[in-house]
Amino acid sequence: MLSGRAFKFGDNISTDAIIPGRFTQLRSNLPELAKHAMEDADPTFASRVKQGDFIVAGRNFGLGSSREHAPLVIKMAGVSAILAKSVARIFFRNAINIGLPVLLCSTDGIKDGDELEVDLRSGTVRIAATGEQLRFARIPEIMLRILDEGGLLPYVQKHGSFQL
Amino acid sequence: MGKTLAERILGTRSGVEARAGDIVIANVDMAFIQDTTGPLAVRQFRSAGFERPAASLRVAVFLDHAAPSPGSALSDDHRLLREFARETGAALSEVGEGICHQIVAESMAAPGDLIVGADSHTVTAGALGAFACAMGSTDVAVALGLGKTWFRVPESIQVVLSGNFPDGVCAKDLVLYLISQIGAEGATYKALEFGGDAMGNMSIADRLTVANMTVEAGAKVGLFPADKVTQDYLSALGRSECYQPLSADTDATYERVINIDLTELEPMVARLHTVDSAAPVGELSGTKIDQVFIGTCTNGRLNDLAVAARMLKGKRIHPGVRLVIAPASRGVLLAAIEAGYVQVLLESGGIILPPGCGPCLGLHQGVLGAGESCLSTANRNFRGRMGNPDAFIYLASPAVAAATALRGEISDPREMV
Fold first, then answer.
1. Which residues of B339-366 are buried (b: 16+ CB within 10 A; e: fewer)?
2. Is residue B68 reached through a cis peptide bond, with omega within 30 degrees of 0 on the bond before it?
3. Measured between CA atoms, how close is A12 to chain B, in angstroms?
4. Is A160 part of a structural domain of the chain?
5. Tens digit of each residue's pLDDT (9 = 90 or more) over B148-200
6. Residue B417 has pLDDT above 70, yes or no
7. What is the pLDDT of residue B296?
């Protein structure tokens, strides 16, 4: 069970908003880079987010660049899962590959600051204040198994290769 | 039942039937990294315990995004990548050689190849009929080590093109129009497959521009058939042995079919701050512009510089505008010098940058100031893209860019011929 506070964002949050290209020189210094997580979408995010909190977004979260640093800085900032109506393809794979859950569900009923409880096993999100429960969609089995191992590297180290 | 191009290539590379929706494990022909995603990929490759890339793979390392390096941390990233290339025997494309996607097209990709690259515009090589798919650093690191990766076989959207481009209109206008019609997630997780009577009118340069931007509609791949145009392109580069014809079956199943008549297109401009917001240039005419950028993997090729040079010949750009030009590769720059384009562009007031990504990603070589506007031939105009969240970026063709450089405001190139 994951629990934390919702940080609400809108539609089409690009990887340039998540971790702008002007910080490319920090990409080999991840702790410093993570201080700029989400900076162009919400400059106060990195200083306010606490371990376990959630990013709650609209449609097409993470569109744009293939930079894996986008989900990495979100995870390093403390976020335990991303909830979104939809997510861009490359970002989706990258997030799962580093062990950051991406949960696809209707996010309209979640308000900024809501306390949430997420149960990855049952596939539900509970809004603490109202008790309302949301279901999130199942992701492909291979992605679930990569996530279960904590990411693609531990998955490959355990299995030696991809398994269907 | 017939196969789409995506099903055909993934079927061949995975050795199974590979129908849309299936998950397959496919053998990769080529994998590449570049200087902003490569250092993480190398670290992940080593963390996974790999020592050498799979023997079956062609591997390339490109120094193009921060080239030459503007800072010591990026110089150290370049050192790491050079060392990795030396250790593993990977092809190294040095600073100054040009943009990964241009070099992949010129000298590496072939029809039917399965290519993964740690750069979102890897889709560009779909112009040659390669299933070229972007992934992040860890995915590419694992593909490097294993020589394979997993795919969900995408549903395909067929884009049927007819007619020919009118004067002043080009492939960039086509792809901006297409994305404006289907939206920034109109092809997410899907393949965009191009075909139709217009194929004979579309050069590989045109196809590269279109395939390049399919990712801006969310696409996994943008695929063109491999045909006579492809064969001629490869032959001219001395690579005729790489050619094989490739097409979808006529009875393939598409999720959706989109018809576009090229003769009806107009010059397009993508408005602030999304790629899918393009409108005919007339709707934005008169918008004041501080910097014009011609270049990138979308529009930094010889034909793009030729269009600009034709329009700027014997003229001076507007005094309020900086015109920044970055050829896509060393080969493009040499050919542009040979053709006299570089002389024309310099005499008109333009600045020629070294071959590479230039100011596209906001790292160097033309970072915008607060409140400034840029008209760019690149593929992205997200807020902050060119290094400043308080700047404004419009996307358009090289012809619109040249017209805009002359007038200092967004202008219709058809008024200047």
1. eebbebbeebbbebbbbbbbbbbbbbbb
2. yes
3. 8
4. no
5. 999 999 999 999 999 999 999 999 999 999 999 999 999 999 999 999 999 99
6. no
7. 98
Q: What's the CATH number where A33 sits?
A: 3.20.19.10
3-state secondary structure of A4: strand
Indicate where chain B has its CATH 3.30.499.10 domain(s): 5-14+22-262, 269-415
Residue of B77, B116, B120 to mutate when probing chain A, most A C-beta within 10 A: B120
pLDDT tens digit string along B322-355?
999 999 999 999 999 999 999 999 999 999 999 9
Q: How many CB pairs under 8 A join A and B?
A: 145
Q: B311 vs chain A: nearest CA distance in angstroms?
A: 32
Predicted confidence band at B416 (pLDDT cuts at 50, 70, 90)?
A: confident
Residue B116 neighbours by CB under 8 Å, 6+ apart: B28, B30, B31, B32, B122, B132, B133, B134, B135, B139, B140, B143, B149
State the nearest Cα–Cα gap between A141 and chain B, in angstroms.
9
Which residues 254-313 of B are in CB contact (within 8 Å) with A? 274
Q: Do A21 and B148 touch (CB under 8 A)?
A: no
Give the nearest partner residue to B383 out of A40, A98, A153, using CB atoms: A40
Q: pLDDT tens digits for B86-101?
A: 999 999 999 999 999 9
CB-based contact A21 B387, cutoff 8 Å: yes
The residue segments making up the domain with residue A75 are 2-137
Annotate B367-389 with b (16+ C-beta within 10 A) or e (fewer): bbeeebbbbbbbbbbbbbbbbbb
Q: What is the pLDDT of residues B130-139, one digit of tens each?
A: 999 999 999 9
Domain assignment of residue A108, yes or no: yes
B142·A156 Cβ contact <8 A: yes
* Reported CATH class of domain B5-14+22-262: alpha beta
Q: How remote is the C-alpha of B99 from its chain's centroid?
A: 9
What value of ipTM does the predicted structure carry?
Answer: 0.98
Q: Domain B269-415, what architecture?
A: 2-Layer Sandwich (3.30)
Contact residues, chain A to chain B, C-beta under 8 Å: 12, 14, 16-17, 20-22, 24-29, 40, 59-60, 63-69, 86, 88-90, 93-94, 97-98, 140-142, 151-153, 156-157, 161-162, 164
What residues of chain B, 169 to 188, have a C-beta less than 8 Å from chain A? 184-185, 188
Closest approach of B388 to chain A, Cα-based (Å): 8
How many domains is chain A partitioned into structurally? 1
Chain-centre distance for alpha carbon B349: 26
pLDDT mean across residues, chain B: 98
pTM over 0.90: yes
